[in-house]
Design goal:
There is one protein chain. By secondary structure, the protein is of the alpha+beta class. Helix content is about 20%, strand content about 20%. Among the domains are: about 140 residues, no CATH class; about 160 residues, no CATH class. Strands 1, 2, 3, 4 and 5 form a five-stranded antiparallel β-sheet that branches.
Length: about 600
C-alpha cells in the first residue's frame, strides 16, 4: 500500500437476487493502482444501520484480489474502462460520461503527459468503440478532464496553468470559452498571475460550477506571510451560462427578459441548465446534493429576483403537467391542491426552494414551524402564497411519515408480530404521533384519524410490538413533558422553595418520531435546522404520491426497510450536530 498511486470508487452496486447473505443489498468497489502496475480490488458493503451514537462495527470490508494490469505505474483509474496509451505516452487522467438520453453510449476522454487528450465513443450494447479524435490542447501534462451537461461539454486543465472548454457536437469537439461571470461571488482575478500550475478540476453535482485547483508560484508571493502559509487555491467558475443547446428544455430563453448584468440569451442558457440539473433528481435513488443549484439561484436573487421565481415556477409547471394543465400565473394559488399527487422527492425540493431561495432575507426559515401564522402576516400576498406552499408540503410529508408508522404498527399488532418483524426499521414515538393526529383531526386525512383512534384504544397492548411510551420526562429536571407541538416541547418544571414559578426547560423534539430528543448524540439538518434522534424509513423517500390506502401500501413495502440518515422534510443528508466553530466553511 505504500506504493499506491491512484484510487477509484465505483458507483453503488446491487447484490444479485440469488445472493441472500445479508439484509443489505448494496456495496461499492474500491480499486487501488500501484507503482508495480497491479490493481487491488476491495469491496465495502453498505452498513445495515447508520447510528449517530457509535460507530457501526457491522461494515464488511473484504479484499477481493489483485490484477496485474500493467508492467509499470498505474496512473489513472476509472470504473468501466482501464486505459493505456498506445504510443507509450503517459496517461495522466481519465474521465467517463454516460449520457441520460443514450445510456448505452459511453463517452471516454483521457489526457496524456504530452498535453493532448483523446475522446472515444463506446457502445456497450454491441461492445464496440471508435476514436472521435485527438486534440493538442495544452503544452504540458493534462491534470484534469471533466464532462458536463450530459456529455455536451468537456473541460480540461494542465500543468502549464491553462484551462480550456470544449463543446461536443455532431461527433466532434470544438473549443469554446469558459463563461467569465461570477454571479456576484467574490472573484480573484489575479489568481492565474500568481499560480504556475493546475493540479486538477471537478464538476459540481448540478454541473453549474467548475472547481480548479491551482498551485501558487512561490516567487509571486509575499515571502514574509503568504509563502509560509499558502501553497494552493481552489478557483470556482460558474459555467451555467455556457452556450450549449439542450433539447430537453426547449425555448426557455423566449420566456425571460434581459438584465443589465445578463443578456436574454445568457439567462435562457442558465434557465435551461438549472431545469436540466433538477430533472436528474427525479430519480429517488440519486442522492439529493444541490448546493450548487441553491448557490446559483441565491446569487441571482439580488440582481434578478423575478428570474429566480420564474425558474421555480417553470419547474412546478413541468412537474404538474401530468396532472393538470396549469398556467404559470396561477400555479401558486393552485399548488396546495396537488400536494398529494407529488412525489416525496419533489416535495423535498420544493421545501428547500421555499426556505433557502424564495424566502425574504428577513425571513427566519428555520422557525417557520413554530408560529407560522405570525411569520406569514408581515409579507405580501405572493410571499404568503409561497409560505402556504411550504407549510402544506411539510404537512403532506409529515402525514406520509405518520401514516406509514401507524399502519406498520397496526399490521404487526393485528398479526401478533414482534419487533423483529419490522425488519431493520422500528417505529418510535407512536404515542406522540397518535396525539398529534387526534389534536389535528380536523385537518389531517381521514385515514390517519381512523388509524390513530384504533391504536389509541389498544393503549399499553402496543408495548409488545413498538415503543409506546406516552409519558416523557425532562432530561434536566425530570419533570413531566406534555405534548403540545411536534417540533418543540416545554417541561412543566419543578417549583423550588422561594420561587414564584416553576422553571421550565425548552426541549427539541425529534423530526421523525416527535419524541423529545436526548441532550447529546443527535442528527441535524442544515436546511430546515431540525434535529432527529431517530431515522425515517426508506419508503418515505420513494413515495410517488399520497397512498389511497396506507395499510395496503405498507403491506406491499414491508421489506428492505433500511434507515439512512436523511432529513424527512428536506431529503438531504443529516449531519452530526456540532458547534459552529467545528464546521467547515466549504460550500460542499
Amino acid at each position: 500500500m505504500l506504493a499506491s498511486l491512484v484510487v477509484a470508487w465505483s458507483s453503488q452496486l446491487q447484490f444479485s437476487a440469488k445472493d441472500s447473505r445479508k439484509a443489505c443489498d448494496c456495496y461499492c468497489l474500491l480499486a487501488v493502482g500501484t507503482k508495480s502496475g497491479s490493481i487491488s480490488i476491495w469491496r465495502f458493503d453498505r452498513p445495515s444501520y447508520y447510528s449517530v451514537e457509535h460507530a457501526d462495527d457491522s461494515i464488511n470490508k473484504n479484499f477481493i484480489g489483485v490484477i496485474q494490469a500493467h508492467d509499470s505505474w498505474v496512473t489513472a483509474l476509472s470504473w468501466g474502462f482501464l486505459v493505456t496509451a498506445g504510443d507509450n505516452v503517459l496517461v495522466s487522467v481519465v474521465s467517463l460520461c454516460v449520457p441520460i438520453q443514450s445510456p448505452r453510449k459511453v463517452q471516454l476522454a483521457f489526457g496524456k503527459g504530452s498535453g493532448s487528450f483523446e475522446v472515444w465513443m463506446c457502445d456497450t450494447e454491441v461492445k464496440s468503440s471508435h476514436n472521435v479524435g485527438s486534440y493538442d490542447a495544452h503544452v504540458q501534462a493534462i491534470t484534469g478532464l471533466v464532462w458536463a451537461f450530459d456529455g455536451r461539454c468537456l473541460y480540461s486543465c494542465s500543468q502549464d496553468n491553462s484551462m480550456r472548454g470544449w463543446i461536443y457536437h455532431k461527433s466532434s469537439l470544438s473549443e469554446a470559452s469558459v463563461p467569465p461571470n461570477n454571479l456576484g461571488t467574490r472573484s480573484f482575478s489575479d489568481l492565474p498571475s500568481v499560480s504556475d500550475s493546475c493540479y486538477g478540476m471537478a464538476i459540481s453535482p448540478g454541473n453549474l460550477a467548475l472547481a480548479v485547483a491551482r498551485r501558487f508560484d512561490a516567487g509571486q508571493l509575499d515571502h514574509m506571510y503568504q509563502k509560509r502559509t499558502q501553497r494552493a487555491a481552489v478557483e470556482f467558475f460558474w459555467i451555467g451560462g455556457q452556450q450549449v443547446d439542450l433539447p430537453l428544455i426547449a425555448n426557455l430563453e423566449l420566456d425571460v427578459e434581459g438584465h443589465t448584468s445578463f443578456s436574454k440569451e445568457e439567462l435562457g442558457y442558465w434557465g435551461s441548465k438549472l431545469l436540466l440539473s433538477l430533472k436528474q433528481y427525479e430519480c429517488h435513488n440519486k442522492h439529493l446534493v444541490i448546493w450548487d443549484i441553491i448557490a446559483a439561484l441565491s446569487a441571482f436573487k439580488p440582481y434578478a429576483p423575478w428570474f429566480v421565481k420564474h425558474i421555480v415556477l417553470r419547474w412546478l409547471e413541468l412537474l404538474l403537467k401530468d396532472y393538470v394543465d396549469p398556467s404559470i400565473r396561477n400555479i401558486l394559488s393552485n399548488m396546495p391542491k396537488y400536494m398529494s399527487n407529488i412525489s416525496s422527492r419533489h416535495l423535498h425540493l420544493l421545501n428547500i426552494f421555499c426556505r433557502r431561495v424564495i424566502a425574504s432575507s428577513g425571513f427566519e426559515a428555520d422557525k417557520v414551524y413554530t408560529k407560522p401564522a405570525a411569520l406569514i402576516k408581515p409579507y405580501g400576498e405572493e410571499e404568503q402564497q409561497w409560505m402556504d406552499i411550504l407549510l402544506n408540503s411539510e404537512k403532506e410529508l409529515r402525514e406520509r411519515m405518520v401514516g406509514f408508522s401507524l399502519s406498520t404498527v397496526s399490521i404487526c399488532e393485528s398479526n401478533q408480530a414482534s419487533k423483529a418483524n419490522f425488519g431493520l426499521w422500528n417505529p418510535i414515538g407512536v404515542a406522540q404521533m397518535v396525539k398529534w393526529v387526534i389534536k389535528n383531526k380536523d385537518c389531517v386525512n381521514c385515514q390517519l384519524t381512523l388509524l390513530a383512534s384504533e391504536l389509541e384504544g389498544l393503549g399499553a397492548r402496543l408495548q409488545s410490538v413498538c415503543d409506546y411510551s406516552a409519558e416523557e420526562q425532562c432530561s434536566f429536571c425530570s419533570a413531566a413533558i406534555p405534548f403540545e407541538s411536534p417540533e418543540i416541547a416545554y417541561c412543566k418544571g419543578i417549583k423550588c422553595p422561594g420561587q414564584e414559578a416553576a422553571q421550565q426547560h425548552k426541549l427539541s423534539r425529534c423530526a421523525v418520531s416527535m419524541k423529545v430528543c436526548p441532550v447529546t448524540a443527535i442528527w441535524f439538518c442544515m436546511c430546515c435546522r431540525r434535529r432527529a434522534s431517530n431515522l425515517p424509513p426508506l419508503q418515505l423517500f420513494t413515495m410517488n404520491n399520497y397512498p389511497p390506502d396506507f395499510l395496503s401500501f405498507t403491506k406491499s413495502s414491508m421489506t428492505n426497510l433500511i434507515p439512512i440518515p436523511l432529513c424527512p422534510f428536506c431529503g438531504i443528508s443529516l449531519q452530526r450536530l456540532q458547534p459552529d466553530f467545528l464546521l467547515s466553511i466549504s460550500p460542499v
